[in-house]
Write a sequence for this structure.
């Protein structure tokens, strides 16, 4: 898992994107998943529940 600092920077960056009315859908679709994966997060489609 990534360092707390890296996760914090990721969270701040994405909160700002989601709050901004000028953020375009393609900006989110193209990089959110890649950035999550780079931090060590994995999608399991709810299997952990």
């Amino acid at each position: 898992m990534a360092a707390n600092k890296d996760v914090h920077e990721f969270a701040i960056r994405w909160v700002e994107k989601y709050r901004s009315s000028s953020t375009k859908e393609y900006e989110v679709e193209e990089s959110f998943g890649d950035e999550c994966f780079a931090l060590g997060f994995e999608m399991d489609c709810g299997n952990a529940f």
